[in-house]
Amino acid sequence: MTMMLPLDLPPDAFPTAGPVLPGLRQKEDFITPGEEQALIAEMDRAGLAPFLFQQWTGKRLTKSCGWSYDFQTGIFARAEPIPDWLTTLKARAERFAGLAPGDLEQLLLIRYDPGAGIGWHRDRPAFEHVVGISLGEPATMRFRRRSQAGFKRANAPLFPRSIYHLSGEARHDWEHSIVPMKGLRWSITFRSLRKSSL
After folding, report:
1. How far apart are CA 131 and CA 116, in angstroms?
2. Is residue 26 within 8 Å of 97, Cβ to Cβ?
3. Dmax of the chain from CA atoms?
4. Model confidence pLDDT, tens digit, residues 60-73
5. Which residues, listed in sequence order, are joined to residue 137 by a DSSP beta bridge?
6. How many CA atoms lie within 13 A of 121 on its CB side?
7. Is 2 contained in some domain?
8. With 0-12 CB in 10 A as exposed, 13-18 as middle and 19+ as buried, what is 124?
9. Cβ atoms < 10 Å from Cβ of 192
């Protein structure tokens, strides 16, 4: 099934609140409840598999498209194309982030089971812009940055049907993590590639 999401939205259709950090932009209600349910149904049919990190299996199911990083081998390589049912959503995400059509070349689908989260990390250096859409259970994205006095910290809520964009300082200078949740959550994350990684 191909989802038909409207593309003909005016430039001011994505108003945002003040940023939690420089380089973090967020918008609530980026998609409708109906679109959210349709996306969840597509993700549940997409063949997500347990996340493997060395000898550890996470409490989440994942699938990468466009490009994939294998945490078992450290290999970054081409993967199957981004599916057609996400074509329009990807175009809307590019527009929200101020990117050119086609800039978002990598996709990560995740289903978080109850109790799942993500530990502290920065996205792999091969990636540049990070644009995520949240579905299901609300979540909290935590940020931290080391300083001489310890860590500076900030939190950003990830509401159902919302979108966020990480670039600049928030993307490169701060680590982030996802607090474990009590219910099911799904996320659709698009990334652009650093030109030097190609």
Report:
1. 20
2. no
3. 52
4. 899 999 998 776 66
5. none
6. 8
7. no
8. middle
9. 20
Q: Cβ contacts of residue 17 below 8 Å, gap of 6+?
A: 26
In degrees and rounded to multiples of 5, residue 142 shows phi and psi of -100, 145
| pTM as predicted | 0.86
Would you say residue 162 lies in a domain?
yes
Nearest Cα neighbor of 14 from 132, 162, 189 is: 162
- Tokens representing 195 are 């030109």
Strands 139-147 and 104-112: unpaired
127 and 67 Cβ atoms separated by less than 8 Å: no
Q: What pLDDT score does 150 carry?
A: 87
Tell me which residues of the chain have a pLDDT lower than 70: 1-19, 52-58, 71-74, 196-198
| Domain extent for 120 | 21-193
pLDDT per residue as tens digits for the range 68-118 = 877 666 678 899 999 999 999 999 999 999 999 999 999 999 999 999 988
Exposure b/e, 15-29, CB count within 10 A at least 16 = b: eeeeebbebbbbbee
Query: Residue 80 is part of a domain; what is its CATH number?
Result: 2.60.120.590
